[in-house]
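User: Hello, can you help with two protein structures?

Assistant: Certainly.
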Amino acid sequence: MIRLIFCLLAALFPLHLLAATQLNEEVIFVPKKMLIGSISLETTIFKPNGDGPFPLVIINHGKSFGNSHFQNRYRPLSPIRYFLERNYVVFVPMRQGFSKSGGNYSDGSCSMKANGLLQAEDIQPVIEYAHGLPYVDKVQTLIVGQSHGGWTTLAYGASKPDQSVKGLVNFAGGLKNESCGGWQSDLYRTAEDFGKATKVPTIWFYGDNDSFFSRQTSDAMFESYRAGNPQSQFVAYGTFGSDSHLLFTSNDGRAIWEPYLTKFLESIGMSSKVVNPQFQPLPRTEVPSKTQFAEIGELEKIPYSTDSMRKAYSLFLEKPFPKAFAISETKNYGWEYGGDDPLASALSRCEKKASAKCKLYAVDDYVVW
């Protein structure tokens, strides 16, 4: 019955608008003071129902390749739903120079420390803005980040964080710049410095097949950090898909990190029990099994393909999990990434253009044709 209702609603409203309504999603622009004038940080709020006050979660995004202004607004719905279920209000800011936020990305040249601290400067204005809202609890804040956002989270913990911050959550965080000599040594030294300056508990999640950070690198970074901040836990969960760096945004990744994160919240005295079951994940399209038809990157093997389809598929390959690509024998296609059910959305996009039924060709990092 739930599935039927959802399908009827999806037929009336675009999937992303439906999700936005269900999650009380709102996009705002938070002012950030600069040396001269100010800029605005594009920030998405996901709010539980009711008046609150709700404990606050800040989720920090990673960095895609290319111009940071072309990076899409970050919406990691799986962890967002996790926190809404537990009655948190979630703020997801785009840092300076990303997406529609003002200013330009500050990379700190080849200094890992400068990069992290520059990125961390964008967190405090968001917390201060949130604390000005009547429905936000001003004494309970959790900072979460993935990839470059995880590094930003660790840097913020070392940079005079707001007194309301109770803990830091780091998913595959770090900074990799192979054009800078000795980047790994700098990463370890900076992690040690961040640890020494951090007074709140942290939890780190890293996999064995991370495309950015090998276990040797993540282990060394953590041990350097823990030497300064022993209130730190490392979760080594093994392999995940073809790239464990994408665990945080994958719908399937939640089963791995949820029990550890829930225990961490309990340990720091923050809300850990589900009180809003209405925010739990919606029923999703059944994910087909991987086939041996082709490897994910073999564009020449896509059936019924055209230059336009192959170009779209190349873009699809660059997107984070979850994602899906659908095709039809009439040479039409549709694809989607992110959201609760990218498979259904990809099929829907394809069938709007096709005169024949569409089928899924690829899901996440494998072919299902």
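That covers the first. Now for the second protein you mentioned:
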Amino acid sequence: MLKRFFAKVFAFIIVRKIENTYSKSFKIQEKILFSLLKKASNTQFGIDHNFNKIDNYEFFKKNVPVRDYEEFSTYISKIKKGSRNILWPGKPLYFAKTSGTTSGLKYIPITKESMPNHINSSRNAFLFYINKTGKTNILDGKAIFIQGSPILEDLNGIRVGRLSGIVAHYVPRYLNNNKMPSWETNCIIDWEEKIEKICEETLNENMTVIGGIPSWVKMYFEKLIKKSNKKTLAEIFKNLSLYVFGGVNYEPYQKTFNKLIGKKINTIEFYPSSEGFFAYQNDQNDKSLLLQYDSGIYYEFVKLENFENENSKRYNLSQVQIGINYVLIVSTNAGLWAYNTGDTVTFTSLYPPKILVTGRYKHFISAFGEHVIVSEVEQSLAETSKYFNELIAEFTVAPKLNNDGKLPCHEWFIEFKSDIKILDQFEKYLNKELCKRNVYYKDLIEGKILKELEIVLVKKGGFNRHMKSIGRLGEQNKVPRLSNNRDFIKGLK
């Protein structure tokens, strides 16, 4: 087939071009920094921070401190009111609207220069998949990405919407005949109504690629199976061969997905965010993600253990080490400068630079200094559910300080796919797995400062009902894996 042949040729060209830059990644990053500074030197932010005088990385760090979104609010407010040349020359094309942890809605600028990063990174991930596996059958059928509505608002000449909705406007023409759902269905705001309509449209199609955040794709899969009276997705979509996900760790969902799908299919992990498309999986035999070091983003890293220290040291790509947990800091061609993404990553390779996303900086439990992070709880639960052959629908963890006269503990709210009969054994095994991965937690358990974790059973569909009740059902909303307080779990029981 001609389309398959050209896809293989194009994939070969692009992949070789990228691979030839692996050894130059440090130099490329250095060029990007000074290119960004030069471009934005006459903006308000550039003038405020002496961009035209910065001639080395150390000077950049002295002049541009790490900031959270809240500390950009003065600049963002001016852009929202229609001012130009604030963080980047001119005005942004879009604001990606996303939920913040302390500031409510966040408005993240996307510019003409930054938009290709969001589009090309996704494309290149598919080209790596085709080149490395030789599989082009994904091109023969239909593809769907469960995403937000592409309807955009206008704010003083800047279009505003969810990132996935913005990206929906940039689907290449040659894919228009393959993509689903219909534009009308994609525009539906109500999430449950949208999933229902997507099921109707795709049920009798030849779906080969499905993408989206696991929790919402799971809802889609379950509705499809119920509607079709089939047992698995493999019976409905015989040629389904690829699942694409991003935003959360797939591991806790993998066993559930395997059962729902009914056959083994390949997966590709993306690391997209409103601030930029940072990395993607480029090798089916390696779970780590290729950092997008040549896409208009300058990366810095701060060791997680030192992040709250005053004057904590910042490292660029040439200074990082493998196996250390870093908070990811970015400066971008959308006008974000030394911006704290809140994500934590660890390097698995430097040539090329490859990372694993280990969680969110603010999503941890450290009520007693244990500093348990997201990757530790996800890996512990995945191992435990595998051992007991239990399927997990969803979960979250919070500290339980007032424990009816008993020692405090970590409280796990878990929605199992079916009734669990040996909960006490599951609890003990899960606690043992977490002790393996976090020595501080283990010491607190053995020192009788914390008692072993407790599990609260959440009824089937409980997480979806709770997310709906707090206005966070669907799109880019995700259940927080860890909280250092009990705000999220209020009402979950």
